Amino acid sequence: MGLQEDEWNDIAISAAQRKRDARPADAEISGVGWPFDEFQSENSDIPLLSPIDVNLQALADVKLNPLVFDGHFTAEALTKIANTGETVEVRLINPELTPTLYGGPLHDEYIFDSMHFHWSSGSSPDCLGSVHKVGGQRFCMEVHMLHYRAIHGNKSEALKHQGGLCAVAFMLHLTNIENPFLARLARDLAKIEVPFSCTPLEHNAMLCCAEAAAPFGYVTYPGTLVGREDNLNVVWIVYPSPIGICCTNTAPFQKLRAGVEDMPSGLLTTHELADRPVLRAVP
Questions:
Q1: How many folded domains does the chain comprise?
Q2: 37 lies in a domain?
């Protein structure tokens, strides 16, 4: 019998606390405005939603501590995948090995919840399915790693608070060079073609994003979960430099059956920034 959600979260948070107690404190870096302080919009009439179009030419640099992915990319952290009827979702099998995210724009430890994918439902392998744009350009696919702030105890509670969640976004673009981790995951998708099916893996599916998960060079801004309007409950971390995926590895995503008709397309409207800060993290 599997663990209940509360039991899982308790184990994950306890494991994160032990790791936090064992490491030295981060250096103090101060600044003015978000992310050092809560963001207060001067125009409450405009909902501050995600996704956005990241304009690399208009970014302000912000000096931050290194962003640390603690445990995301270890071979021991075995995962399972599920066809949710809307996406492919990746979760950990062992809560003791739940990864944490800290540093960068984050004021606290954030606990890994899940990872999921966005892609186009079109039949062509070069269809563009990312939800964010970078310089007006969409990418083949987009991967999101969701985390919740440890002090809130779970994702549902974190949704009620500004900055309660952190979403890390990785872009995928078509290339002729095969990413071995994406290739292995793509082969496993045949096991979950049916909606609401799930299968354990003998590897860590998060390793497909390891090459891009740098401590600096990402873009960060306050926003929402995609498709929701809970203002500013998410700290977004977007890596604009894409990871390569070959067309033979995108096809299995497009073959997945959805709960209703096709899997939804990633082509969502990008939202205006209004007066939100969009920052590039530098050492």
A1: 1
A2: no
Per-residue pLDDT of the chain in tens (283 residues, 90 and over written 9)? 578 888 889 998 998 889 888 888 777 777 778 998 888 877 777 778 999 999 999 999 999 999 999 999 999 999 999 999 999 999 999 999 999 999 999 999 999 999 999 998 765 656 789 999 999 999 999 999 999 999 999 999 999 999 999 999 999 999 998 999 999 999 999 999 999 999 999 999 999 999 999 999 999 999 999 988 776 799 999 999 999 999 999 999 988 987 665 555 546 789 888 889 999 999 9
Q: What is the pTM of this model?
A: 0.94
- Helices and strands per DSSP (H, E), number in the chain: 4, 14
Report the alpha-carbon distance of residue 29 to residue 44 in Å, rounded.
Answer: 29
Chain centre to alpha carbon of residue 94 = 20
Range of the domain at 137: 5-25+48-281
Give the domain CATH number at 256: 3.10.200.10
- The encoded tokens of residue 232 equal 């500013």
